[in-house]
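idk why but the lab printer keeps eating my pages so im just putting this in chat instead. protein + 6-phosphogluconic acid:
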Amino acid sequence: MASSYHAPSANLHTLVNPSSSRSLPYIPSTSRFFTVKHDLSSLNLNSHSEKFKCGGARASMAEIVTPKSKGKVTVFDTEEHLAVSLAKYTADLSNKICQERNSFTVVLSGGSLVKSLRKLAEPPYVDSVDWSKWNVFWVDERVVPKDHPDSNYLLAYNVFLSKIPIPPGNVHSINDALSAENAADDYETRLKQLVKNKTIDQSETTGFPKFDLMLMGMGPDGHIASLFPGHPLIQEKEKWVCFIKDSPKPPSERISFTLPVINSSANIALVVAGSGKATALHIALSDVSNIDVLPVQLVAPEGELAWFLDKEAASKL
Ligand SMILES: O=C(O)[C@H](O)[C@@H](O)[C@H](O)[C@H](O)COP(=O)(O)O
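predcted complex ->
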């Protein structure tokens, strides 16, 4: 389902309160659930704060307690420490799920998330993870050739996939010879075959594919995958994969998993770093009401949700 869409002109600081005058500036409310101080060492709240080893140095992280629906939130003092923890989380999950069902389905977004996966391609994980059991997919992809600098596949290949011994047949990228419409249909058909042959699990509740792990970033406007604020694609209820030709983030033509597929996941990790994401993150994780809903606020997996934040992204919580 793709239709005409006008990117919202308001930025996150001028979001409109629909219950009153349409031009009220958006003023974030104080979080009901937690407070985060900029200096992680001073965190002393509903949180569990600890030191862990990171490349020989001691690193700080703080775990924040949020309502169950918002998942487990961990704030790291640097992106480097975030990347170390993200690699351990992914490798541990891979080991656990491979033992249970002898395979592991992993979905990647594009953007800075991919760089934060770099530690997986280093010792100990490059040797300890059973890469032959991995099947890799994309939650969204730009409709460009695979060797184009905008390609999410190329980004993942350069940072990560080229450095691990994953069978090439287990890397499920889109068909870049097709139009956006056809690439979305083709990807959906391939997912259906892989559900049928049980490579991908299926949600008993929704009937949508149930991936073991989705690793996703979030844009500064609160978008996830290629589902943008105010765009009709966030309403899609039937399709597994949709296309967009008017993406506000270039390039304009993309394909994306729909929200029902995203939310049927067994595990979602949302990885958010940098001060440019702080306002959207505040909206997503606190109890802000009466604003236009951001796509990231609609993430509610059947399974577990884990947030990996750096302290810049968490600075407004
Ligand atoms: O292809 C894409 O553009 C992405 O999949 C997109 O959803 C991305 O993950 C976010 O925009 C965050 O990107 P950054 O972390 O680079 O801001």
